[in-house]
Design goal:
The chain is of the alpha+beta class. The protein has helices at residues 28-32, 64-67, 81-85, and strands spanning 2-9, 12-19, 38-41, 53-56, 91-93. The protein has one domain (2-93): Alpha-Beta Plaits, CATH 3.30.70. The chain is built from three helices and five strands. The strands form two sheets. It has a three-stranded antiparallel sheet, with no helix packed on it. It has a two-stranded antiparallel ribbon with strand order 3-4. Strand 1 and strand 2 form a beta hairpin. The longest helix has 5 residues, at 28-32. The chain starts with a strand and ends with a strand. The model has no long low-confidence stretch (mean pLDDT 93). The structure holds iron/sulfur cluster (SF4) (2 copies). Residues 18, 23-29, 54, 85-86, 88, 90-91 line the site of one iron/sulfur cluster (SF4).
Length: 95
């Protein structure tokens, strides 16, 4: 399942999408995220899942454009830390 967290406004779409089928709950993205945007939760939509899944924390869902801004690509940085850390390729950013 694809879980979308974020919002759109006049300046664009700002969503982080987690592919919960790919996420193995390793927590590497949580550990590397400097702004604590990501956290591990119990997946309430899947009663058979016995491992946690990553989600955008409640406090950042309406401001991820700003929370993630320091990580966004600049000259010399092409990959976001969370995406770099995720070996199963479960994280996508819309912007
Ligand atoms: S690094 Fe990837 S697989 Fe590990 S918890 Fe984060 S999203 Fe899930
Ligand atoms: S882009 Fe940076 S701040 Fe945003 S979720 Fe990824 S590691 Fe965290």
């Amino acid at each position: 399942m694809l879980a979308n967290y974020g919002y759109k406004d006049g300046s664009g779409d700002f969503f982080i999408t987690i592919d919960t089928d790919k996420c193995n709950g390793c927590g590497k993205c949580v550990a590397i995220c400097p702004a604590r945007v990501l956290g591990l939760i119990t997946d309430e939509s899947d009663p058979f899942r016995d491992i946690p899944v990553v989600a955008v924390t409640e406090e950042h869902r309406r401001k991820i454009k700003y929370s993630c801004a320091p990580c966004k690509p600049t000259v010399g940085r092409k990959t976001l830390p969370c995406i770099y850390a995720c070996q199963p390729n479960a994280i996508k950013h819309s912007w």
